[in-house]
Amino acid sequence: MLAAIGVMIAIAVVVGVVLGWSAIRLKVEGNPLAEKIDAILPQTQCGQCGFPGCKPYATAIAKGEADINLCPPGGDEGVKKLAELLGVEAKPMDESHGQHKPKSVAFIDENICIGCTLCIQACPVDAIAGAAKQMHTIIASECTGCELCIAPCPVDCITMVPVTQDLPQWKWKYPRIPLIAMGTTIAPSPSGRGLG
Amino acid sequence: MTRELFAFNGGVHPPDHKTESTWRPVHPAPLPKKLVIPLRQHIGNPAKPIVAVGQRVLKGQMIGAAEGFISSAVHAPSSGFVTAIDMQPVPHASGLSDLCITLTTDGRDEWIALTPLDYTQFSPADLRARLRDMGLVGLGGAVFPSAIKLDPGAAHTLPMLILNGCECEPWITCDDSLMRDHAAEILQGVAVMRHLLGSMEILVGIEDNKPEALAAIQQAAEGLDFAVEIVAVPTIYPGGGAKQLIKTLTCKEVPSGKLSTDIGIQVFNVGTAYALYRAVFHGEPLISRLVTVTGHVLRPQNFVALIGTPMIELIQLAGECDHGTGLLMGGPMMGVPMPRADVPVVKATNCLLVQSAELFPPLPRELPCIRCTRCADVCPADLQPQDLYRFAKAQDFGRAQEYHLFDCIECGCCSYVCPSHIPLVDFYRYAKSEIWAREKEKKAADLARERHEFRVFRQEREKREKAEKLAARAQAKKQELTAAAASGDGEAAARKALIAAAMERAKAQKAGITPQNTDKLAPDKQREIEEIEARRAKIRETAHQPLEQEKKS
Fold this sequence. Notes:
The structure holds two protein chains of two kinds.
Chain A: H1 2-25, H2 32-40, H3 54-63, H4 75-86, E1 104-108, H5 118-122, E2 128-129, E3 137-138, E4 158-162
Antiparallel strand pairs in A: 1-4, 2-3
Helix pairs in contact in A: 2-3
Chain B: H1 19-22, E1 27-28, E2 34-38, E3 48-49, E4 56-57, E5 62-65, E6 74-75, E7 80-89, E8 97-105, H2 124-133, H3 146-149, E9 160-165, H4 174-181, H5 183-197, E10 201-207, H6 211-222, E11 229-233, H7 242-250, E12 265-269, H8 270-282, E13 288-295, E14 301-306, H9 311-317, E15 324-329, E16 336-337, E17 351-356, H10 374-378, H11 385-393, H12 397-402, H13 413-417, H14 424-487, H15 490-512, H16 523-552
Parallel strand pairs in B: 1-14, 9-10, 9-12, 10-11, 13-17
Antiparallel strand pairs in B: 2-8, 3-5, 4-7, 5-6, 7-8, 13-14, 15-16, 15-17
Helix pairs in contact in B: 4-6, 5-8, 11-14, 14-15
């Protein structure tokens, strides 16, 4: 009886020491879940979710303080990915935080711009070049389309221009064979297959 | 001719339909009234326009300069006036427009001064730069800038050079015609390649269904001062794929994700060799090419067409027929459907294949995959097309990449044999472009995250620096005061010093903000200002005087 208790205590002490040691030495820096969530978020940094950027929102989701359907730029696809990662049910977008829009970039009308730097201060990714009383311009390749520069502009010279599709961005569509009703003319096959 | 040949796995034997267009001689196409020259005809960055609307250009004049490392120049195919530089429909499956230079020809076809290059006198780097400005690109289909391929890189030599005259795709005969008519010139182009690459072994691979081309090249090779081995390779599609040809000739396989140059082999199309010959020995940039016009036309044949010629004009020359159902640029296996027939011929246009319901009957309905693996049997890249199809259809792109989706050469063998008539290649193209788009998106998101994090870091740093500065200043003032207090007599002196210091600061600030717009004035203006200031001083003085007198009295 005593021997058994002794053995149990010994095991408890050993396991306790090992666990205690590993809790200190093998501690993971940062929050891995928040980082995984952050990787899914579109990094628009628009703040439409109510948090000051994508990372704070990711942290809030990881802590269970925020819902997964608050990110309009991510859209339904983003919600689906988050739901998959977190093992929860996907839900429709929360419309109160804005709607999913096609990607666009800001454009400054340089004839109207007065060089006040307010938009530069608002831009979350430093995508606006310019200085006080100098012309401002958007670096289109860095712009995330967050629209945060539009509200502060005192002369309303910033507009959002939707990104038009050009050749380098074009994608092959999901192949679909057109359904042909009997007796109508026949459309050419998409890949042009078939040899005479 | 005793070389041992090796077979690659897979391949198919579609009916070749070559004789339709080869029995007629090659015709130069007449000069069109309008040429539309896209600035993006090659892989890499589009060329940058260097002409203005309204400018007269001569035949062979550079109108678009190469920009960036992977790029190539474009040239005016005939003399005339630039009438527009704008977005025009281009030969692309999307039907989208791209930046093009429109040239209205003046009918004179006037060349610029041409300077043939004595290539032995140039250093390889100089010669490559010249070729880049000549707009040379690979004419086998990939349109990769040739100047880059002609660089042996750090190794200084590429042991083996293979000239690809296989032309394995059905219907197309432009390389065949070129070899029959210009064998000697092609081999002179090879001499330039040999000079640039330092290759010791040179092979010419031609499929054995082109006996005339084989004979012509063999005859031309006899007069050469270097050894060229001409090899008749068995006719099988896609035996003309670069990797497949290498396997056939050398039994070497290009590893997944690597280039043929990694195993010391470079492959060029015969058309590229001929264009290189024209560029070096005649100084002519790449402004025309052979185009096979075949399929559902009255007189299938090869044309020498200027780059920028509308495709419809070539089809009309070959005799347009009624009831065409579509137009392919390229052959039936790998060709891309053209959204419209008035798009221009570009450097990549080797064939215009007009489809009809008889020649290309519409596909029966797509049926479910039965996993018969016939596609795997014919895949020349040794892939598992049925699995790739499954992953692409389910949008499981990660798995598709694990199964080496990017080794797929889109040859179309799998679609050709599929008993369920599944357009397999369309699925692979869809998956590839989707993966590229996602990678691009991810890169953009990573960049945005990095820039945002740096911004947050910078704002915090600025705040901290400001706080530190304020703290340091407060500390300094405190020390000054305690020093003053120690030296003077107690609290009163300290307070006095504090007031004095504040007054000093205010004074300095006031001096600092005096308007600075009066310096750098003209002398007469300066004098005027001084006069006014003097008057003001006087008035101030007189204004004070009576007050003092009153005080006195």
